[in-house]
Amino acid sequence: MEVLQRATVPQFTQFSRPKWKPPKHRLVCCFGLESHNSIELHQDRLQSLDDGSERTQNDVWRLFTEAQRNIMYLNKQRVQAIEELEEMKREQKSLLEKIEQLEGQAHASSEEDPSSISSELLLRIDSMVLTGILDTREASGFRGLLTDTKLRVADYFSNMMSKSDSEVLAALRHFSNKRKMKCFHIIHICTEMEPVASVGSLASYVTSLSHVLQKQGNLVEVILPKYASLNLEKVKSLREIEAEVFSYFNGQLHRNRIWTGVVNGIGVTFIQPVYYSSFFSNEKIYGYSNDFERFSYFSRASLDYILKSGKQPDVLHIHNWETSIVGPLFWDVFVNQGLAATRILLTCQSFNSQCLEQPDKLAMCGLDPARLHRHDRLQDNNKLHLVNILKAGVVYANKVIVMSSIHSKDQIISTMSHGLEVVLGTHKDKLLIAPFGYDDSNWDPSCDKFLPQSYSADDMGGKAVSKVALQQQLGLPGDVSSILVGCIFSEDSDVDLEILKSLAWDSSRRGVQFIFVGVSNVSGVNSEMKSFQDGLKDRNVRFLDKYDESLSHLIFAGSDIILCTFNDPMVQVPLKAIKYGAVPVPLNVADNKLRHFIDPNSQRTRLSEYIINTFANVPLSQALNEIKNKRSQWDEKIKDAMSKDLSWDGECYDVHVSAYTLLKK
């Protein structure tokens, strides 16, 4: 077709049939007997030539005419094909527009008429009752919830119709629990908040929990010191309030400058001392000899600010020892100044740091040392001549939440209280356990920019691709069927090198690929691990003493197993492993002992129950055997784990709102 299009078409319309004329011949007269006959013969020959030339010209004309007709026919076919193609394009475009229009109408219809979603949910409830998933009593409650015309059911369940019955049931229960709970006014008095002032797990906890609480309709505020190192670029609408707020400290009233701003959608108030300006002018947040003075000043100033501004929050949420002094200050000084309806909730990230001080320092912020230096109040249980500031928070708070994704209440009291066993045992009824939420904004295999191919529980193909990419990057033998074990430990991880080396040695003999990543602050750990790798001389083992962000993501995605500890809330290694489809296996002996602590009567979180029953009872040797001999069951376990809701919106939110509800009762 293209050749014909490029060919030059003769302009046959200008072609005229040539009119042949015989040449003029001279007549030669020859005298003789045969002259007349010769002339006649010559004329006959000329006539024959004339007839042959005319036939040749006719043949040429006929060929050109046929060629012209063929070319014109092909051009006509070409034009017709182009027109048909354009028509198909127009029809396709019109069809797509109609589909988009119908989808838009369907979406608008579902928004305008949530009853369709309610009806489908009611049918799903019927199905769950008939199949024994749901009992009739709970089903009746759900039906009443869905038929309440005041509730926007469609907003909550619009994306749930394609989910499994178990997921729909979990969503129904979650929705039901939230409807039973009222909204609260919560003020966090704390020393960290991500991303403006971040050191440990407290920063992400305050920000994530505040965001979820506010998203569910609660009013949330945060009060922070105005550090010199504050990341002001992350604060929107920062401004100083033109009002003086005085706070009592060291026998006098001292003026504070009050700043307000918005951080990640949360209203934040920053308190800046005028006279004691050096308290928060340093680069670090913690680690100074006057930390008690710094944070007791801030705690007192926060309460003075709340009182001056006329706020009457439902809950004052305090954190760790740094703001635990708010407890006795509130009940001994502030409760009768218009805050009688407010209650105190203390959250402890851990009990490692407690702050022991001389009792007379309590007077600096307006407390009576003689009244508080008692065994049932602030007196330290071991060093009786000192007061324990974290103990003050436990004793004076109405509820105490301990953040732990794996341990039970009894475990925390008996083995993780660092000398506070007696006080925690005495106040056991006010103690609650909440798991850390998982932040998938940077760690989600379905949209991880560091992975060669994304994947999810519904489509695991990208995990195999990630394993091959990891093997190629580290120079490991490229075999997707090889079992790959990753181990990532942070700078302060408590790693037992002998156990680590023993696991690597045993696995190496079984052909397992091993990757160790971490920079340890413990003297000699890195060099000893490097020497161990050199001595092992195994092409399946790699030890990396430098942290690389992209490689870290690839290790989680490419590994079948992640060796880890379960006590690192900052790194959240077990939760990342679960999210990326790798089984978290306890690294140290202490973690293996978790399986001996299972007490059906002990209070623990749903996440803790799941991790212990599914993973903590599985040592590395057993996990390797299961992958090799029960691959299909292993894959199902992985997919089920990846589908769990580990977010801040899940169990962590539920525990906190339950605590707020109990406080108000």
Task: Give a description of the structure.
The protein is of the alpha/beta class and 665 residues long. It folds into four domains: 2-12 and 35-97; 115-180, no CATH class; 185-224 and 240-258 and 291-434, Glycogen Phosphorylase B (Rossmann fold); 461-648 and 650-654, Glycogen Phosphorylase B (Rossmann fold). The protein is 46% helix and 14% strand. The protein is built from 23 helices and 17 strands. The protein has helices at 2-6, 35-112, 115-130, 136-146, 153-157, 165-180, 201-215, 291-309, 326-334, 369-372, 389-396, 409-415, 421-426, 461-474, 497-509, 525-536, 549-558, 573-579, 589-592, 606-616, 620-629, 631-642, 648-664, and strands at 185-189, 219-225, 236-240, 245-249, 252-263, 266-273, 315-319, 343-348, 356-357, 387-388, 399-403, 431-434, 484-489, 513-518, 541-544, 561-564, 583-586. Strands 1, 2, 3, 4, 5, 6, 7, 8, 11 and 12 form a ten-stranded mixed β-sheet that branches. A five-stranded parallel β-sheet has the order 15-14-13-16-17, with helices on both faces. Strand 5 and strand 6 (266-273) form a beta hairpin. Helix 3 runs antiparallel to helix 4 (136-146), helix 9 (326-334) packs across helix 11 (389-396) and helix 14 packs across helix 17 (549-558). The radius of gyration is 41 Å and the shape is globular.
Task: From the structure above, extract its key features.
665 residues, Rossmann fold, disordered N terminus, alpha/beta, ten-stranded mixed sheet, five-stranded parallel sheet, 23 helices, 46% helix, single chain
